[in-house]
Write a structure and sequence with these properties.
single chain; alpha/beta; Alpha-Beta Plaits; 7 helices; about 25% strand; elongated
């Protein structure tokens, strides 16, 4: 895949390293000349120096031949412009924007950006979920926060321990996708008895996580805000 990374510093370097290892073709555009030289020398990628929002700079970087453009600046307005220029003027099939202010995500999507990533929102959601109850091991927002993937570990004190799945009364909008027990993974059925020590991987709406936490772990959580 051909990818154009526009702006950013540490996030961009991490992406370049990861994507290079996966053998993608990468071009970087940045308004920091020294940063361009550093990335080029470290990873052997083509770097174009210039104003990130100018169409001719993106054109010089080969935007017309890209599969995806990723806008990574710390300025939401610039990221929106970069994606709109790539999409509307150069017909790039897929655009991704880092959104520094989570409230801007819906606006970006309505204005044609294909995918928004808010590190602030993702990190705050993870911190909130981890702080709510210690039995949560992972919390991953999917589809811009409309669905979450949560891993919960049952203890001896969990009200769901040693009970059959069908009688638990999990809320609508929440399912147990798999159970991890003694290093083995399996998909549970209604007659599956879950035990203390089981790790349960849930797919759920953010609202249903509250009730699921109470049903499975005996602890009520604050609703995770998906706005």
């Amino acid at each position: 895949m051909k990818l154009l990374l526009v702006g950013g510093h540490q996030k961009t370097r991490a992406l370049v390293k990861s994507l290079k290892e996966k053998r993608h073709t990468i071009v970087v555009v940045n308004d920091d000349y020294e940063w361009c030289k550093l990335l080029s020398s470290m990873y052997g990628v083509i770097c174009v120096h210039g104003d990130l929002t100018k169409p001719f700079i993106l054109e010089d970087a080969g935007v017309q031949g890209m599969d995806t453009v990723i806008a990574l600046t710390n300025n939401d307005a610039n990221n929106l412009v970069i994606c709109q220029v790539a999409k509307k003027r150069f017909k790039v099939p897929h655009t991704i924007a880092v959104v520094n202010e989570p409230k801007n995500m819906q606006v970006f999507l309505k204005l044609g950006v294909d995918k928004c990533v808010s590190s602030t929102k993702t990190i705050s959601d993870i911190i909130e979920a981890e702080a709510v109850f210690e039995e949560i091991r992972e919390y991953m927002p999917l589809e811009d926060g409309k669905i979450v993937c949560v891993e919960m570990t049952l203890t001896e004190k969990s009200p769901a321990a040693n009970k059959v799945l069908s009688i638990l009364g999990l809320p609508e909008g929440c399912i147990i996708g798999c159970v991890i027990r003694d290093g083995q993974t399996f998909v549970p059925r209604g007659n599956t008895k879950i035990k203390a020590g089981d790790k349960l991987v849930l797919l759920s709406t953010p609202e249903a996580v509250d009730i699921a936490g109470e049903v499975l772990l005996g602890k009520h959580t604050k609703t995770v805000n998906s706005e």
